[in-house]
Amino acid sequence: MQDIVYIEDAKDAHNQVPLLALHPKVGGQKDLPIVSHALDNSEDENTKPRLVILGSGWGAVSVLKNLDADKYNVTVISENNYFLFTPLLPCATVGTHELRSLLEPIRKIAARVHGHFLEARALEVDIENKMIEVQSVNGRQDRFYVPYDKLVVAVGATSITHGIEGIEHTMRLKTIQDAQQIRRKVLTNVELACLPTTTPEERKKLLSFVICGGGATGTEFAAELFDWMNEDLVSWFPKLLREDISVTIIQSRDHILNTFDVQISEYAEKRFEREGINIVTNARVARIEEDKVVYRLKNSDPNNPEFKEVPYGVCLWSTGIAMTPFVKNMSEKLGSQLHQRVLTTDGFLRVKGVDDGSIYALGDCATIGNPKILEHMMEIFENADEDQDGTLTLGEFNKAVKYMRRRFPLTERHLTKLENLFEKYDTDQSGTLDIDEMRAMLKDIDSKMTHLPATAQVASQQGRYLGKYLSQIAGLDAESTEHKSRQIGTFTYNHLGTLAYLGNTAVGEFNWGFKMIGGLWAMYLWRSVYWSEQVSMRTRANLSIDWTKRAVFGRDISIV
Ligand code: FAD
């Protein structure tokens, strides 16, 4: 127990609850101060279990929004004191949105559950003593421990580098600082390109934007650049610059936006090509030099690989995610963790290998050990077998597939061309699938299943589930927790759809099978979805103002 000094006369904002002041005792494995009470802890909160949430992104915010306000003494620890609306981050790189429009102070969100906030970086978890080692991030390097009863790890991920030589020359797009740096670099390069002393070759290089990675982030950044070139650059800068600008996307797969339906990827490629954006597919970046990206054509002879190069003024690296140092450290401590890039959890989002089940992980830093759909075979089969004759006709099989797609969205990509699938597993060619044939099919699907995608949608749904789950198990002992957990059930993901901005239009696919492929209306739909997903009315208002300002005055082109 820590030394707690009651300040008898101190009152909270409502002049009611006595406050506590802290003089943390030193202890733990590293002899650091142990902060067991927040500065603004009320006496009442000390009786509640301590819930520590690491991170202030999609996962953490969704937990905070769904947690019962009275069940825990909540402390949020994050490197940033704000929530960042990442899907609109590419828009901030060219000034379509102001950076501040994408941010909401985490203190305002945590206030709903009377939560405390510490702007600090989690360094290590002491699982045995249930404490987090934390370091302040604002110049002062104070280190201290924060004890927990339950810990939620929602620290997201960092960019994967694949060990590429020269990666330090590239820019990333994950944080608000990244967007700010890109915006400054883009505008600075354009200003440099306008100098009379800049040679034509230098100008071309300064205005060459190379994007390594043709996923949603890379593609949306290219689209924003494209909008900016056509709307603002031509209005305010020498028109000749337009001729010298080039945008190149280098993608290792067959298509850009390869997680989307191929029709959407092809539409995006055609549109970009028409607008003069170069798309290099089936190419792997080999190294990045100070002024050029060298890539290898994947289909070239492995014994004599063909390399090509493209000079750049700005190079964005956007190719996937890797563990943050904190998650890596935690994963190494828990020998049971098998997954290379994330923490593995069970269906209740409890980190595997933590015996008392007190640590939860969600979002980009975690993955759920895949549910085995074979274990749900009877449920799937009986639900589809309308005439209950123990076999599935093609019609009944379609029903089973619909059910599986809804309940286990990750199976979707393995459940296409249904008639072929039906024929393939109807081994006795009876025109129906019996239970053994269905078992063979589900077994094959299980072996091909991948993990939930690292998206805001997944993190947010997991946070919603975890907030509600934690509210229901608050204060329960281990046995009652297990019992209650079984009643609540494991997390199930409901894939609503995916969207991507393509420059004054958008593409998307929705869970009811609808595909949105271009058109101005698609851009407005895209805007409305993100507008409605905002965490506060303040950011909604900011977005609306930004869109209006852009339409009336164009984007801001000043460098600050
Ligand atoms: P994050 O939202 O990344 O939050 C992690 C938090 O942890 C941050 O606040 C960080 O500061 C904090 N943190 C990190 N390390 C520590 C530490 N050691 N100690 C304390 N705090 C720490 N997804 C979609 O579904 N749709 C989209 O359109 C989309 N567009 C995207 C565009 C961009 C540019 C990017 C980068 C991502 C996009 N995503 C999109 C993916 C989505 O942003 C992530 O999947 C989502 O943010 C994951 O949520 P999270 O809570 O796991 O992590």
Helix content, binned percent: 25-40%
What distance separates the N and C termini?
49 Å
Total domain modules = 3
Low-confidence runs of at least 5 consecutive residues: 1-20
Q: Strand order across the biggest sheet? A: 11-10-9-6-5-12-23
CATH topology of the largest domain: FAD/NAD(P)-binding domain
* Arithmetic mean of pLDDT: 89
Q: Could you name the CATH class of the largest domain?
A: Alpha Beta
Bound molecules: flavin-adenine dinucleotide
- Relative strand content: 15-25%
In DSSP terms (H or I, runs of 4 or more residues), the helix count works out at 17
**Structural class, from helix and strand content?**
alpha/beta
Please count the beta strands (DSSP E, at least 2 residues each).
29
Rg estimate, integer Å: 26 Å
Family: Belongs to the NADH dehydrogenase family.
InterPro entries: EF-hand-dom_pair (IPR011992), EF_Hand_1_Ca_BS (IPR018247), EF_hand_dom (IPR002048), FAD/NAD-bd_sf (IPR036188), FAD/NAD-binding_dom (IPR023753), NDH-2 (IPR045024), NDH2-like_C (IPR054585)
Domain EF-hand: 372-407, 413-448
Membrane topology: Peripheral membrane protein
